[in-house]
Specification:
The chain has 138 residues and is α+β, with helices and mostly antiparallel strands. The chain has one domain: Roll (Thiol Ester Dehydrase, Chain A). 22% of the residues lie in helices and 36% in strands. The protein contains three helices and five strands; from the N terminus they run βααββββα. Strands 1-3-4-5-2 form a five-stranded antiparallel sheet. A hairpin with a 5-residue loop joins strand 4 and strand 5. The radius of gyration is 15 Å and the shape is elongated. The two termini are 14 Å apart. The relative contact order is 0.24.
């Protein structure tokens, strides 16, 4: 099962033409992943306190249409794949008012320890994030 986060586009998110600056979509995906994990019971704060961290290993975005100042975006997030030490997320970013797909993103996170060495994900984390997994956005 996925998760949807809604984000309003503020002036600070745009270029002088009122179009969302392309790199900001990565920030929106980060927020959506954080909310997804929290909703699944995988508190990033708690994991960090335990020495478990997630780092971005790969990111791919396909820009289909521009988001604009004042839009509200709906970011659908789902797990595409979960390996022993990684999770790949799919993100579909839509204009909430129309449902128009603006961006398709795929982001792979690797689980690491404080020394940034790969770390096998604990079973409770894997179970939490993969519960009800089907082919998701992205």
């Amino acid at each position: 099962m996925g998760h949807t986060l809604k984000i309003r586009i503020y002036y600070e998110d745009t270029d002088c033409g009122g179009v969302v600056y392309y790199a900001n979509y990565l920030k929106y995906c980060e927020r959506a992943r954080t909310e997804f994990l929290e909703a699944k019971g995988a508190s990033l704060k708690k994991l960090m306190d335990e020495g478990v961290f997630f780092v971005v290993a790969e990111a791919s975005l396909k820009y289909l249409s521009p988001g604009r100042y004042g839009d509200i975006l709906a970011i659908d997030t789902a797990v595409r794949r979960a390996g022993p030490a990684s999770i790949t997320f799919g993100h579909d970013i839509r204009r909430d008012a129309t449902g128009e797909l603006l961006v398709e993103a795929t982001v792979k996170l690797c689980c690491v320890n404080m020394e940034m060495k790969p770390l096998r994900m604990r079973q409770d984390i894997t179970d939490a994030v993969t519960a009800g997994v089907r082919e998701g956005p992205g």
